[in-house]
């Protein structure tokens, strides 16, 4: 197996497990259906198990190098949902822009750990228009969702332009859509939205509609931040590098960084 595939393979072996559902409770003790004597097995539990097992030598195997353990823990199956926002009730917007979701401001440590931002929408427009050639397509649609990233007004902006508000169109509704549709968008490292984040930034999602007659009907909306698990470790500084756990700090120290 190629060296580059080892973290993914081991990550799959230690994929977080969901305990089997408890059998139906006896009619003699119905109150037990909401109780469990076993702790819930979570992604964090699984990550700690990976850390415990792989960094310790066994009777028949040596401990894995810390650098490889860090690669395994950085695999997408190890990430945690660390922040989320959801729409509390359905809304509709007509010829306006309305903020429906917000997260932040983000700290430097949160941005360092951040690996993915997910947006979900269930929506449609008014269901008709005077442009039948565009019906059922995404052309000429004037209802959409927009992400606005606002920097901390009190931050010391080192470079000109870094303190400006940034806007990104996330999703456009289908033109003259008659039924609600589900949309899901994911942004990871390499995408402008993720790479451009700075300390103090606040994320806000707006539902938008332009011109009279256009309406954005939003039934559901959500925003999630998925991050590297710091395993509850301490933050530390090693050669100017902000570590995410004591394990990462030890690895950097061994490398002489």
Give structural notes.
- The protein is about 20% helix and about 30% strand.
- The protein has helices spanning about 5-15, 45-55, 65-75, 110-115, 190-195, 245-255, and strands spanning about 80-85, 90-95, 95-105, 115-125, 145-150, 165-170, 180-190, 200-210, 215-225, 235-240, 240-245.
- Strands 1, 2, 4, 7 and 9 form a 5-stranded antiparallel sheet that branches. A 4-stranded antiparallel sheet has the order 3-8-5-6, with no helix packed on it. A two-stranded antiparallel ribbon has the order 10-11.
- Helix 1 crosses helix 3 (about 65-75).
- Residues about 10-35 and about 235-245 have low confidence and may be disordered.
- The protein has about 260 residues and is α+β, with helices and mostly antiparallel strands.
- It starts with 5 loop residues before the first helix and ends with a helix.
- The longest helix is centred in the first third of the chain and has 12 residues, at about 45-55.
- The protein has 6 helices and 11 strands.
- It is elongated, with a radius of gyration of 23 Å.
């Amino acid at each position: 197996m190629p060296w580059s595939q080892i973290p993914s393979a081991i990550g799959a072996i230690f994929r977080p497990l969901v305990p089997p559902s408890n059998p139906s409770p006896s009619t003699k003790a119905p109150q037990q259906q909401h109780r469990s004597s076993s702790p819930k097995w979570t992604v964090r539990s699984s990550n700690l198990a990976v850390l415990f097992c792989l960094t310790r030598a066994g009777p028949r195997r040596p401990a894995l190098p810390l650098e490889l353990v860090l690669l395994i823990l950085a695999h997408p199956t190890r990430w945690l949902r660390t922040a989320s926002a959801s729409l509390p009730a359905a809304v509709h917007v007509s010829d306006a822009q309305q903020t429906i979701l917000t997260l932040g401001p983000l700290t430097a440590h949160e941005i360092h750990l951040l690996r993915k931002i997910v947006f979900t929408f269930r929506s449609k427009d008014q269901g008709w228009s005077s442009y039948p050639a565009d019906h059922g397509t995404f052309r000429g649609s004037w209802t959409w969702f927009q992400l606005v990233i606002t920097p901390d007004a009190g931050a010391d902006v080192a470079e000109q332009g870094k303190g400006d508000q940034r806007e990104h169109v996330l999703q456009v509704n289908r033109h003259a859509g008659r039924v609600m549709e589900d949309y899901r968008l994911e942004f990871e490292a390499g995408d402008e939205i993720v790479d451009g984040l700075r300390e103090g930034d606040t994320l806000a999602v707006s539902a938008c509609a332009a011109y009279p007659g256009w309406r954005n009907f939003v039934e559901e909306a959500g925003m999630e931040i998925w991050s590297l698990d710091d395993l509850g470790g301490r933050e530390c500084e090693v050669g100017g590098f902000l570590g995410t756990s004591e394990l990462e700090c030890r690895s950097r120290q061994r490398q002489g960084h």
